[in-house]
Design goal:
Blueprint (H helix, E strand, L loop, with lengths): L2 E6 L3 E11 L11 E12 L3 E11 L2 E16 L2 E6 L4 E5 L2 H20 L8 H13 E4 L1
Antiparallel strand pairs: 1-2, 2-3, 4-5, 5-6, 5-8, 6-7
Helix pairs in contact: 1-2
Amino acid sequence: MNGQITTYNSDFISFSYDIFVVTPSSQALFEPPLTKEASVDFIFPDNSDKILELPYVIYQSHFFSFKESLKCNLTFKKNHFHLKNDRLDISVWGSTKDDVLDAFNFHFYSLYSNFALEDDNNLSLEAKRLKTKILDLISLIL
């Protein structure tokens, strides 16, 4: 995700990020699979929560598109962004918007690689439930 803090003062923060979509291409090996569809801007007061809907996660060379956007609570408190998803029990923070999104993407990828890819015989009942939640979210992996 691309994005930046465009304005910050003690009363409000403006937060923006770009939305990309997967584009089919006959030259998929030569063109990036993502194109910019839109930009989303948030303006909200310090210490208030906003819902951030993530239609996908990108970590290193891994792209995960979701069947429906993953809803996360985004808060800015004490000069840090906090991003939380209750469904997967992910809670991360960072001093910049990019830091918190990078942390979220890493955490999601870690859950995917440690649970979704693991053989069921090696997982507890609770871990199997988490695996199912993760796999049920994903519509496309590149």
